[in-house]
């Protein structure tokens, strides 16, 4: 006969973790202020974002073909920049693998340019 606790085995106690500091790849110098954007890819991302915003304004003003072409051109430009820059320099242009990012951006940009040129004018409409 064994001496067992009738309430069953004791559950292990889990203690909350101590405060953990995030690990960064580069040492942080508290005297060095952070630059925004911190990579050249981030600067190109902001440029592409600005051009897409301007393209939306052009579309809103009524010249939708020019606006969509401008937007598609910005995406194709982003694809080329993504192919040229290293992964650590790509900033927010890097989402997945370099080739996949470039193919998706180029396909979307090319499709916008193609559709803007291939949709026929509608009589009495936009």
Task: Tell me what you see in this structure.
There is one protein chain. 17% of the residues are buried. It contains three helices and no strands. The mean pLDDT is 81. It is elongated. Helix 1 runs antiparallel to helix 2 and helix 2 runs antiparallel to helix 3. It has a domain of 79 residues. It is mostly helical and 126 residues long.
In short:
With 126 residues, the chain is an all-alpha fold.
Write out key terms for the chains shown:
126 residues; mainly alpha; single chain; 3 helices
Strand and helix map with partners:
Blueprint: H1 40-60, H2 64-84, H3 98-118
Helix pairs in contact: 1-2, 2-3
Class by alpha and beta content: mainly alpha
Count up the helices.
3
- What's the end-to-end separation, in Å? 90 Å
Low-pLDDT windows of residues: none
Strand tally is 0
Shape: elongated
Strand content: under 5%
Give helix and strand order, one letter per element, not per position: HHH
Q: Whole-number average pLDDT?
A: 81
Reported for the largest beta sheet, the result is: none
Gyration radius from CA atoms, angstroms? 26 Å
**Residues in helices, as a percent range:** 40-55%
């Amino acid at each position: 006969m064994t001496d067992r606790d009738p309430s069953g085995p004791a559950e292990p106690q889990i203690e909350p973790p101590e405060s953990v500091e995030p690990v960064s790849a580069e040492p942080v110098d508290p005297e060095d202020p952070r630059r925004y954007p911190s990579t050249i890819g981030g600067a190109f991302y902001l440029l592409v974002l600005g051009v897409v915003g301007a393209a939306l304004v052009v579309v809103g003003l009524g010249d939708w073909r020019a606006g969509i072409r401008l937007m598609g051109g910005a995406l194709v430009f982003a694809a080329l920049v993504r192919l040229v820059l290293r992964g650590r320099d790509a900033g927010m242009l890097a989402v997945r693998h370099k080739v996949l990012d470039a193919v998706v951006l180029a396909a979307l940009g090319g499709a916008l340019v193609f559709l803007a040129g291939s949709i026929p004018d509608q009589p009495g409409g936009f």
